[in-house]
Design a protein that fits this description.
mainly alpha, transmembrane, Capsular polysaccharide biosynthesis protein, membrane
Length: about 375
């Protein structure tokens, strides 16, 4: 536990120091330091770190040695199978798998936060303490899909449906659940309002109550996820699903109270102008839709673990949504106090799970591959 605590606090203090002195240079330096720190931990972890790491090691050997990747009898998506084959041709050492995937996933996350976050160092803190980073240590193929989805965010803002669609399809070739992110593009064209919020609430409630029927339709489309319906798996993460719902709901409510929709008319116009890119699309509007979908899907996921994976594509945007909404607080003292209050709560959330539920993602105690006994 000391290692995790020192890592988190060290990156936090370094981020505050570097970005408060010279913001542009400090952010770039912090980008490099935080990337290499998290990359080294991910690339050189032992197979005991992450619930599925050992399975991915087996798949690397199996797919790599196969003569015909299209003839493999597997539920794993073809994009991930092909990646393993290519990497195995370069080297049969599994470090190449962990190294390449870690560099891509962490690199994309870092660049995404650097370009889109109002408080970059705080986004890195949230990336770790909302346990998104921990997930990337375990679910490699979905982590790749998550990273590709982050790249697609740019094309939602720029209103470019073709590159957005191609990226979502590419992400779904690594993890089919990425297909759910197609929802964001058409919804982002709708101006967020109380009526829209009620629509999400109503749809979420209906899908929750009709879960058994809905999940049957989903599994007809994505039959490879039937194993997530097993009672043992479902019960083991039901508590996690409830906690995830509470966390994302609190994040959403916090965003509502600090968003421009609850400011004066003059402040509303100012925030709206600042949140627009060159094509006129509001980042805040897009993020409110994404976080609303995260709330809705995590609520439905309480009924069944099979939905939980889909929520990650929306939940991960909290790392830029929270800093964005903090910046909407005009009073500097209140803004700083709010930031550090969220810091304490999120840090405590992470440590409590690490201590009392280490089996959820198996990242504690941490060990490198050379420490494997």
């Amino acid at each position: 536990m000391l290692f995790q605590t020192l890592l988190i606090v060290g990156l936090l203090l370094l981020g505050i120091f570097l970005t408060s002195a010279k913001k542009v240079f400090g952010n770039k330096l912090y980008l490099l330091i935080s990337f290499f720190t998290l990359f080294i931990l991910s690339a050189f972890r032992s197979i005991n770190i992450g619930n599925d790491t050992e399975d991915y090691l087996y798949m690397f050997q199996n797919f790599g040695q196969s003569q015909d990747i299209f003839g493999i009898d597997t539920r794993i998506e073809i994009g991930y199978v092909a990646l393993n084959k290519v990497l195995f041709l370069i080297s049969s050492n599994p470090l190449i798998l962990f190294g390449v995937t870690s560099a891509f996933v962490i690199g994309v996350f870092m660049l995404f936060m650097y370009k889109n976050s109002n408080i970059f160092w705080f986004s890195v803190f949230l990336f770790i303490n909302l346990r998104i980073y921990y997930f990337t240590l375990s679910g490699i193929r979905q982590a790749i899909a998550l990273a590709i989805i982050l790249i697609s965010y740019k094309f939602i803002k720029e209103r470019k449906p073709i590159p957005f669609s191609l990226l979502v399809l590419l992400a779904s070739s690594f993890h089919a659940s990425a297909i759910f992110f197609f929802l964001v593009y058409p919804l982002s064209k709708i101006k967020y309002s109380k009526k829209v919020m009620l629509m999400y609430t109503f749809v979420g409630g209906v899908l929750f109550l009709t879960f058994n029927y809905t999940i049957g339709i989903i599994l007809n489309i994505l039959p490879q996820y039937e194993n997530y319906l097993s009672s043992s798996y479902f019960e083991s993460i039901k508590l996690a699903s409830i906690i995830d719902f509470i966390i994302i709901l609190l994040i959403f409510l916090f965003g509502l109270f600090t968003s421009h929709r609850f400011l004066s008319s003059a402040d509303r116009r100012l925030v709206e102008e600042n949140s627009k890119n060159s094509s006129g699309s509001s980042s805040l509007n897009i993020l409110l839709h994404i976080i609303s979908l995260a709330v809705m899907i995590t609520f439905i996921a309480i009924n069944g673990a099979v939905i939980k994976r889909a929520a990650l594509y929306f939940f991960m945007f909290a790392v830029i949504f929270i800093p964005y909404t903090i910046q909407n607080i005009k009073n500097k003292k209140v803004r700083v106090l709010t930031l550090y209050l969220i810091f304490v709560l999120v840090f405590a959330y992470n440590l409590i799970i690490l201590i009392y539920r280490p089996e959820w993602q198996r990242v504690y105690p941490f060990e490198f591959f050379w420490q494997l006994k």
